[in-house]
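Aggregate trends can hide what the representation actually does to any particular protein. In the encoding step, the backbone of a single protein was reduced to a row of integers, each denoting a local shape. The record that follows shows the chain in one-letter code together with its fold in token form.

***
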Amino acid sequence: MKSLKFYGKQNLSFEESKKPFVKKKDDVIIKVKAVGICGSDISRYAKLGPYVEGTIFGHEFSGEVVDVGSEVTNVKVGDRVAGCPTFYCGTCESCRNGDLARCEKLHVMGAYHPGAYAEYAKLPAENVIPIPDSVDFDTAAMVEPSSVVVHGFYRTRMQPGAEVAVMGCGNIGLLAIQWAKIFGAKKVFAIDIDDEKLAIAKEVGADVLVNSIEKPAHEQILEHTNGSGVDVAVESAGSPITSAQVLALSKKGGEVVFMGIPYADINIQRFYFEKIVRNELTVLGSWNAISASFPGKEWSTSVHYMSTGQINVKPIISHRLQLREGPETFDKIINKDGFFGKVLFYPELG
């Protein structure tokens, strides 16, 4: 089968691999219909390299079941599904407490297990989520990032009528805008330095667009909130700069949720750090997308709101490509050669 294998930093190869087969009683073999590039894939490609040299990369995908183990009951051959790519140990203290996202050995497919940049992928049955006919394969390929976002919102105290600021309008930020509305936000501020991204933010439901190049984001937010700030600020850019700036967006007693991963040291100026103390902020980290009972309500909720159209991923998708275009596409992204939103590959096209 065709696949993308990850050999080292900036070393991704399009090549033939062995097709997975049923080995365990709970195995499910899935023909991959659509698979997306995650921001974490870009960081690992550019800076960190693979966990295991030569592993098939990728983890955000949807597809059709083509074979199942003898004890699989939740899906059958022909079913349309999304894949939860996350593996947990089940034995560490966090797992025993039901805090699966905090598992000591948490990892996703494409790390130690073959990933989804391939014509076929294999997962245990509990990692396979059926999707209704109303959710197309492109949308289903984004159930995983959607679940990452709602996992973070579930951690907040957010109430209907809240004002929310989303800092960073990449794929996660654009989903966060939509989830903020689902959670009842009366106003969502989208913050970025790229007007093209801000235009997409408007299309998916942002009420106020803030270009932070023109004036510091917190100054613009204060102008729009009568000097108060927002109830919840979401950091979704994963930038060392915005990871500090986001602390100045929330009102006194407000919340800050970190969903982005900066992959660099964070130097926080006194002005921003003091906001935590003086405003008595609640600062929340959010990691991955799973909870008990596995894979968690994040997944069923994502599928539901995708089926109603309240989570709309179509404006977020910028490229639909053949798998063989993977290596050059990763290079273009890290070299900033053009605008890239969510990139989807279609392995069956070659």
Summary: The mean pLDDT is 97.
